[in-house]
User: Fold this.
Amino acid sequence: MLARALVALAKLFFGAYPRWIGVRPEPRQRIYFANHGSHLDTVTLWAALPPHLRRRTRPVAAKDYWGGGLRALVAHRGLNAVLIDRERKNPQDDPLAPLHAALAQGDSLIIFPEGTRNPDETPGRFKSGIYHLACAHPDMEPVAVYLDNARRSLPKGSLLPVPLICTARFGAVVKPAPGESKDEYLQRARAAVMELA
Assistant:
């Protein structure tokens, strides 16, 4: 019920319109990776998916921000989010373990490889998580997504969104190429998001 309410509010107040450019909305296991400039990004991308994909797609969020109070209710009951620790207490722990587990059970993910909201229109430097997930799950499709207007609708520090039309542009699948280094892949993945801007 909360999930339906979130989608309805997203569609009503800021559109969350999808544009499928490089892939079709097919029932394939994917990691949708996108630019990150607003707290609306997660809901925009998730609500832009058709219902049959949304049911099996889980946003990834920081446990320190989304792990308590009303935010935890939205994260768990509304979005079925995968929460991760941004700060490792034990260097032996794999911060990607919850993501590997979600992928192993057949879910798709929504991630923001910059790791935090970026006030600029162009995405910042990508962190290595997307590379490690793509290498560990070669049958899964990493799909580049550009989120347009969410940053302007709810900029960092704002409490209420401005009603602007937000669009999620779904681009190409970006898998690591044989012999491609981590840095090369991250640059290519970032470029794939920027090409959709």
Residues 2-14 form the longest helix (13 residues). DSSP finds nine helices and seven strands in the chain. The CA atoms of residues 174 and 189 lie 6 Å apart. The beta strands are 17-20, 30-34, 57-62, 82-84, 108-111, 141-148, 167-173.
